[in-house]
Amino acid sequence: MVKILVAEDERDIRELIAFTLRFAGFDVELARNGAEAVEKAPQVHPDLILMDVRMPQMTGYQACEQLKKMPETQEIPVVFLSAKGQESEIKEGKQVGATDYILKPFAPDELANKVKRILEENVRTEGSSLRP
């Protein structure tokens, strides 16, 4: 089963994302901030990390930079979730190693479909179809 680590500081949004992805058949691990995501990622070995940009303790950008420096997590695709869609923010996200950007608000089915597309395009696992 495909595992997704979700780092989001707002509880309601975090729970909505988790519910949506679990309903779509994914295994979901949760983190409350970027620091927690950096700590959990090497332990849970997710196939994808969805991360809010603006979080306390460590921003999504800072967390992504840390994850890309660690050998055990550097190949995991990171996708930012943000209400800010300015070109400069998207550019900064790509510079720190993000694979994609999903803008908030999003419909639950849109999120699940986009996650499936990102996984198909970016995660290659031998013997795995990457189906949830």
Description of the structure:
The protein is of the alpha/beta class and 132 residues long. The chain has a single domain (3-120), classed as Response regulator (Rossmann fold, 3-Layer(aba) Sandwich). The protein is 44% helix and 18% strand. It has five helices and five strands, in the order E-H-E-H-E-H-E-H-E-H. A five-stranded parallel beta sheet has the order 2-1-3-4-5, with helices on both faces. Strand 3 (48-52), helix 3 and strand 4 (78-82) form a beta-alpha-beta unit. Helix 2 (34-44) runs parallel beside helix 3. The longest helix is centred in the last third of the chain and has 15 residues, at 108-122. The model is unreliable at 125-131 (pLDDT under 50).
Query: What's the CATH first level?
Result: Alpha Beta
Given the helix and strand composition, which structural class is it?
Answer: alpha/beta
If classified by CATH, what would the architecture be? 3-Layer(aba) Sandwich
CATH topology: Rossmann fold
Largest β-sheet summary? 5 strands, parallel
Number of strands: 5
Summarize the structure.
The protein is an alpha/beta fold. The chain has helices at residues 11-23, 34-44, 60-69, 87-95, 108-122, and strands at residues 3-7, 27-31, 48-52, 78-82, 100-103. Helix 1 (11-23) packs across helix 5 and helix 2 (34-44) packs parallel to helix 3 (60-69).
Which helices and strands, and how do they pair?
Layout: E1 3-7, H1 11-23, E2 27-31, H2 34-44, E3 48-52, H3 60-69, E4 78-82, H4 87-95, E5 100-103, H5 108-122
Parallel strand pairs: 1-2, 1-3, 3-4, 4-5
Helix pairs in contact: 1-5, 2-3
